[in-house]
Design a protein that fits this description.
Structural class: alpha/beta
CATH class: Alpha Beta
Number of helices: 5
Oligomer: single chain
Order of helices and strands: EEEEHHEHEHEEEEEEEEEH
Distance between the termini: 24 Å
Strand content: 25-35%
């Protein structure tokens, strides 16, 4: 599904990724690799395989769009306790399978707490990035240009009033800021308060759905 922001056409994907065709750039946010491992280290009974599923979906997005560049808008890793050898080897193997892809990490709050990435990953880490009309960062903020970010894990509830509702991840494009859904498999949702002219695109049942801002704000 195509959205027009800051004079540019961007492609929203049900894979929770955003593609910018003009510069062959793929954006994702809040990958949170190693989250399940970090929770298991605290003796919590959480499932295995979430990082594998996340990286397979990321591979699918790369295959679909064939980008020259991947920009991760923060929180690649969840916590230092989740960066166990198995998780780092898993991500290292993913990078080696996509060796032609330039990867840039715009640091998020979880990345800063997790510490710098190993040099063998070959990933540039930056605090923010300005490309074309876009101000790329992790948290919603005022910048020079239109902000693309993550951090809040935007979600909306769908379902008729008085019946069971379903929470869905969504893209949220406002007048000056666009927020991507959390990419990771093992993440929750944050509430949003869209304005009347905002674009809300929810992801459910493998499809994209436009949601009226009034409905998104009322749930």
């Amino acid at each position: 599904m195509i959205v027009c922001v800051a004079g540019e056409e961007l492609v929203c994907s049900e894979l929770r990724a955003l593609y910018w065709p003009r510069l062959s750039t793929l954006f994702v946010a809040d990958v949170h690799l190693g989250k399940a491992a970090s929770l298991r280290s605290a003796a919590l009974p959480v499932p295995f395989g979430t990082s594998e599923a996340t990286l397979e979906r990321l591979s699918e997005a790369v295959r679909r769009f064939s980008p020259a560049q991947l920009v991760i808008l923060g929180d690649l890793w969840h916590a230092a306790s989740g960066r166990v050898n198995e998780e780092e080897q898993l991500f290292d193997g993913w990078l080696k399978r996509h060796v032609a892809l330039e990867v840039i990490l715009v640091e998020g709050n979880h990345d800063r707490k997790s510490g710098p990435l190993p040099s063998r990953f070959g990933i540039d880490e930056v605090e923010m990035l300005a490309v074309g009309p876009f101000h790329l960062c992790h948290e919603p903020c005022e910048g020079d240009g239109y902000t693309l970010c993550g951090h809040i894990h935007p979600g909306v509830s769908v379902g008729a009033t008085g019946t069971r509702t379903l929470r869905l991840p969504c893209f949220w494009f406002g007048d000056r800021c666009g927020v991507l859904p959390a990419f990771g498999e093992f993440t929750g949702f944050g509430s949003i308060s869209p304005g009347g002219g905002d674009q809300i695109i929810a992801i459910g049942d493998g499809r994209l759905h436009r949601i009226a801002p009034a409905l998104a704000a009322s749930r």
